[in-house]
Amino acid sequence: MRCGTTSQGRSCPRNCKRIKPSNMPLANRLGRRTRRLSASQETGRRHRSNSFGDGPAEGIVLKISLAAPGAAATLVVARAADRAVLPLLIGGVVLLFLVSLGVGAVRLPIGSVVAALFGFGGEIQQTIVQDIRLPRALLAMAIGAIHGLSGAALQGLLRNPLASPSLFGAPQAAAFGAVLVIATGLADVLSFALPFAAILMAFASVFVLIAVAGRNSSLLLLILAGLALSSLAGAATALALNLSANPFAALEISFWLLGSLEDRSFHHLALALPFIVCGGWLLLARRDAFRALSLGEETAQSLGVNVAGLRLQVIIGVALGVGAAVAVSGTIGFIGLMAPHLMRPLVGHDPGRLLWPSALAGAALLLAADIAVRIIPSSTGIKVGVLTALIGVPFFLYLIMRERRRLGGGLA
Amino acid sequence: MTMSDYLTVEQLGIKLGGRLLVKDISFALPRRSLVALVGPNGAGKTTLLRALAGLVPSQGRVTIDGKDLAGLAVRERALRFAYLPQGHAVHWPLPVRDVVALGRYPHGATDPQRLGPHDAATVDRALHEADLIALQSRPVTELSGGERSRVALARALATQAPVLLADEPIASLDPYYQLSVMALLRKQADAGALVIVVTHDLGLAARFADRVLILRDGRLTNSGPPDLALAADALAEAFAIEAFRGAHEGQPVIVPWAAR
Q1: What's the CATH architecture for A103-408?
Q2: pLDDT in tens, A296-317
Q3: Which CATH superfamily is domain B5-259 in?
Q4: Inter-chain CB proximity A295 and B50 less than 8 Å
Q5: Residue to test with chain A: of B79, B129, B133, B177, most A Cβ within 10 A
Q6: Distance between CA atoms of residues A38 and A51, nearest Å
Q7: Is B66 strand, coil or helix?
Q8: Cα–Cα 20 to 30 A to A41, which of A175, A203, A372, B120?
Q9: Where would one find coiled-coil regions in this protein (chain B) (predicted)?
Q10: What pLDDT is recorded for position A25?
Q11: Collapsed DSSP state (helix, strand, coil) of residue B250
Q12: B3 in helix, strand or coil?
């Protein structure tokens, strides 16, 4: 369909621009509708005074009956694309999950991975898949998902695409909590004290961040406060290492801080998963409130959203999820920034619809990163947290560049 | 206070950040009326509106339909008051239709993509009334300021609340839409709503309102039908201006003329 040849209707070119070539039959139908739409718009304009108030009703009826299907059709097309997102993401996560089970010192084809997973095939293969690689892959999936979900929730709460747990210092603070427990010898690495301390510190840092930056805070304030908090957490972690009596423990902790999923067992999974599930549930439960919040806090409140309660729920959810994730994997950053950003255009920018896809995309990203660190040849093995930061930081710089105009002129 | 009064405010005081912004305000308003809330900058108009919408804490007593506002749950209040703030910020590029559909949020229709038939029809009507049918699939962030303010108005209409609180709904509009929006608010009032509009346009206030409330330094200094409340001495006292006063087609005309 070429709009220029049909008529001069105002909305016509815009309608057509939205249609992908793959949808030609629909586009044809739509084209016919837009032609009628522009005719009706002419009517609308000629009777401009009718569009409000007390004019004769005929013009109004004509406008609704002809114009509504045409303009609404573009929405229908966009929403059909929405519905394909979740199944595709789930398929991708399952595939990456299976690949993750097959990659390592011993490479297994997907067929034998599936067989070993369900208790068939050789005993060694079963041990490799079920005992060594399964907890690692499950952790990658859960931790990636909670990072993606936390990022999407924070971005929804603060209505800003640059918000993410790692920029606000939450993982760094959680790491400090965990390090404190290890370095002071309060508990060993496999006790529940670890996730508790990490969650507590993550909660404190997000709480302080939002308290310091204020309710309707600009991004600049949030990032500055986040920078300060992550520096503080970093310094506190360094101090804990500094004062640690055992130099070997210090070395081990600093490696652990880099973020890795190597050699994690079902015990680690049991340590983190309950908190991750609780945190994820808290965040997912408020999908609709994020949508109302896109109109600003005051309007959301006037629509019946308890904004203060929502803020607290998001802080607790992020702290539970990120804190528990950090307690078993160390700091793995930038998944929470990337996942929502990649998914947002696919769900029509709806912050409520963004949460599930972001969780799945986060899971896929971390699974992929964890596969990559096992494939990339290196002498000691690259830490997955290092890889996500290496990819994430340039991505963040790109986002800043894209948002530069908005950041430069009057902060949102 | 008569039986027909729908919204009553008694000795309302609002203190924010240690400053008393609104002092001892009392009034009672019936349904089926359009009320213009006017006054100089900083008089407390927006604060008063926000207090009525339940966005800031206040002292005193407000009742709606005989019920004490303080005893209403957040959602109950949301069903009774539609609030249209200044600025019309939308933070994500959502389609116009979805933004308007958020007006159905207090009714439990929290997902614009899964509206029931009644909610969808209400949204369609609101889109139509604000002349937005042709724009309904456009991302709201791509629209002009005037178009965005009409989207915000349509969102407030879709709530179908008995009280509509509009904070400068015509501030960024061209004359055509200023008149259209005021006519639309007038129509809502005639259909049974109580519409309270904050505006600086004394001419449109005089032309469309049933009643004008003048706020100055946080106090209600004058209240009544437009020709009385906006009389020469009242304008001189509240705004320190002189105005041309006349009539056209049987309606009052007020044009601010000179600062005193």
Answers
A1: Orthogonal Bundle (1.10)
A2: 888 999 999 998 889 889 989 9
A3: P-loop containing nucleotide triphosphate hydrolases (3.40.50.300)
A4: no
A5: B133
A6: 16
A7: coil
A8: B120
A9: none
A10: 40
A11: coil
A12: coil
